[in-house]
Amino acid sequence: MANSSNSHTNNSLALSDNNELIANDGIKGWFDQGFTWLVYSFTTITVAVLFLITWIIFQEAKPAIAQFGIQFLWGQDWDVSNEIFGALPYIYGTVVSSAIAIFFAFPVGIAVALVTTEKFLPPSIQAFLAFTIQLIAAIPSVIVGLWGIFIFIPVIEPLQKLLGSYFRWIPLFNTESPVGTNMLTAGMILAIMILPTMAAISRDVLLATPKELRSASMALGGTRWETIFRVLLPAGFSGIVSATMLALGRALGETMAVTMVIGNSGQISLSLLDPAYTIPSVIANEFAEATPGLHIGALSYLGLVLFAVTLAVNIGAVLLVKWVGKTNR
Amino acid sequence: MDGSQNSQIQQSLGAELFSPLPKSRQLFTYLMNGIAWGLTILAVVPLLSILWEILVRGISGLKPEMFVNSVIDFGFGNAILGTAKMVSIGALLSIPLGILTGIFLAEFGRTHPAANFVRFITGILTGIPSIIVGVFAYGVIVLVTKNFSAIAGGFALATIMLPVIVLTTEEALKLIPTDQRLASAALGGTRFQTTFRIVVTAAIPGITTGVLLAVARAAGETAPLLFTALFSLDWSSGLLSPTASLPVLIFNLYNDPDPQKYQLVWTTSIVLLGLVLFVNIISRLVTRRKKSR
């Protein structure tokens, strides 16, 4: 990362001269001007896509916004036949399943990042390991969901039943004989899916920390893990936070795998072993058969809420990365 | 007096230098090593399990006629064709936009004030949930044409591919040395000639990689197709009718009680996963070799 930004500044110096070197007369010149404008207009279209998405979804959501207003956000009913819609169970499901995902993916992601940056292994094997974990990100989410429902759930269900029978006095596990499709399972599947994001960015952050920091800590007699906990992780703290935020953004918007394993029941229950529902899942399940008007409007309104939340999380992460890049320089 | 103090210090220093770490710190090291290794192995297990299970459950049912039959005849030919159609539409829309935006960022943008803004917006586009893109494509195409169609699905996939192509094109163009641009300009090359004949030509392997990654990602997307292209059990006629795709086939049929359909789901998975992973591994290997050179 540091390297690319260096070469970037060097090049921009050279290129500012380049502009004046370019021939600008005759038919060639006109052609060139046309090309420049083509590039500008296509770039404008790319930028416009984001604003167009916002505007279109807002338009689709308008009937529901007019009908329910801001109260939509804490309404708890979702009654399609009577056209009463409230978003709270879905917002709750989205937030809690993503929180569970972060809870599992954070330590595992950091561990992978450490094992693939610290000198536990020869560099070639480290690179191979990092590459392998990266491949998880390439697996289509519907296949992860398929694996979740037919392979992961049969393995995890007995454990959850044990949890439900021995720890029912904890409100989080207060479900009598839970079935495999529930909030906890969805969170764990999500954790698997966001792990590559978490691990890859944390790895980049750790690779970018100056070698001197590590050497200094080791020279003062710190062991490897003392160096990691007192020097490396604090130094990379903000980078790791932004990795977590990007991973969170992915978890919030993940659709297919969650839809297949969360149980799709729009209820708010404190127990993680109860089925739940998320915003992307309800859109995926109902949108195709929804009647135009309030139902489509309500689903689009849900989409707008999700869009706003992921936008905020992603912008936060991007700004944090930029801010960190500036303070490091 | 001084001498004895010195030797005392040396003795204690020697003791500290050569004595092993205290037990508690040793234990901490071993413990943390164990935890880190344990968690890393835990991270690899799901990947291996997914690959293994899909392979085992899918390969047994794989028959060559599946590639030419539609879902009605227990094949996935129409889904492959649908995915190919929609990914092609997506590529057709997003490749020119993406590559020219990438050129803007890498060639014009270094001195342009809007470059950082464009880069920022592209970054945000990458993070938009794919289901949201589906809602967007529904509003733009399906509401207007009053029909679920391959066009709508392709449009949604284009939105997903666009930021991937922009960012990888920029990366690929950045790797081309500035000297080559200067040399071209010195020989009287215009901006167009320099960009296309010199820079883009040299960066074609990198750009191709980016396009392939975008195609692989689009081919595996389900959520944006659910209510834009919908699904079809049979071959679909033309681009303006509901169209099947590999991922939506898996999602629609995974609960099917018919054992033959159930088997079809696993076989489709092996085809889709094989396609996506193959493209990913090849393109990542190519880029890695480029970077290390």
The CATH homologous superfamily name of the largest domain in chain B equals MetI-like
How many helices of chain A in DSSP terms? 12
Main sheet properties of chain A: 2 strands, antiparallel
User: What's the arrangement of strands in the largest beta sheet of chain A?
Assistant: 1-2
Which term fits the overall shape of chain A?
Answer: flat
**Which CATH top level class of the largest domain in chain B fits?**
Mainly Alpha
Secondary structure category of chain B: mainly alpha
What CATH architecture label of the largest domain in chain B applies?
Orthogonal Bundle
CATH topology description of the largest domain in chain B: MetI-like fold
- What's the overall average pLDDT of chain A, rounded? 88
Indicate how many domains the architecture of chain A comprises: 2
- What gross morphology of chain B would you assign? flat
**How many distinct folded domains of chain B?**
2
Poorly predicted parts of chain A: 1-18
Per-chain topology:
The complex is a heterodimer of chains A (329) and B (293).
Chain A: H1 2-21, H2 26-68, E1 78-79, E2 84-85, H3 88-115, H4 123-138, H5 141-166, H6 183-208, H7 211-219, H8 224-235, H9 237-253, H10 256-261, H11 279-286, H12 294-328
Antiparallel strand pairs in A: 1-2
Helix pairs in contact in A: 2-12, 3-6, 3-9, 4-6, 6-9, 7-8, 9-12, 11-12
Chain B: H1 2-18, H2 23-59, H3 77-108, H4 115-126, H5 130-145, H6 150-174, H7 178-186, H8 191-220, H9 246-253, H10 259-292
Helix pairs in contact in B: 2-10, 3-6, 3-8, 4-6, 5-6, 6-8, 7-8, 8-10, 9-10
